[in-house]
Amino acid sequence: MLHSFKKTIILFIAEGAYSGKSPVAPGTFGTAVGVLLYLAMKNLSPLVYLSLCLLIILIGTWAAGHAEELLKKKDASPIVIDEIAGYLISMFLVPTGWGFVAAGFFIFRIFDIIKPWPLMRLQDLHGGPGIMLDDIGAGIYTNLALQVAVLFLSR
Q1: What is the rounded distance in angstroms from the CA atom of residue 26 to the CA atom of residue 35?
Q2: Which of 3, 44, 54, 59, CA to CA, is 20 to 30 A from 14?
Q3: Angle at 56 between CA 81 and CA 110, to 5 degrees
Q4: What is the pTM assigned to this prediction?
């Protein structure tokens, strides 16, 4: 029974509260869960926000690696914890307005899909790190793009 419970927990985390089971665009649905989580976290202090991001990355890497084994497919499409973590990174220290929330969503999805250099190569890593790191990178790229937008909009 514990084994079954552990599998359930792993898949619940890796599949983003089962949003990754969407028959179409599971990564987009996973990112939407990231938006909801961001809305719950946006008023936290930067230190607490970043700490929670790191915790999600660590737990997500563990769950994604195990889920990949359970699903018997490398970076299986239902695994969306990477999109959730990537979106949260996208929004770190970004203003909390709806325009930024939406821009972060769309820019992150673009970076996640096109995987600019060197993100594509990170997928070659084995297990959880190979699943998580390219989306973490997409989140960093998105955050940089949003920070530049903030600079230009504040002029």
Answers
A1: 14
A2: 44
A3: 45
A4: 0.94
CA distance 78 to 84: 12
Provide the token pair at 136: 């973490």
Running DSSP on this structure, what letter comes out for residue 20?
Answer: G
Res 128 pLDDT > 90: yes
Q: Which amino acid type is present at position 11? A: L
∠ Cα 50 112 55 (to 5°): 25
What's the gap between Cα 60 and its chain centre? Answer: 9
Query: Per the structure block, which two tokens stand in for 97?
Result: 């307005």
Look-up of token digits 């499409």: 77
Specify whether the backbone of 75 is left (phi greater than 0), alpha (psi in -120 to 50) or beta. Answer: left
Q: How many Å apart are CA 150 and CA 100, to the nearest integer?
A: 9
State how far the alpha carbon of 40 is from the alpha carbons of 2, 33, 80, 85, 135, in Å: 31, 11, 19, 14, 21
pLDDT tens across 47-76, in order?
Answer: 999 999 999 999 999 999 999 999 988 889
Residue 26 and residue 9: Cα distance in Å, rounded?
19
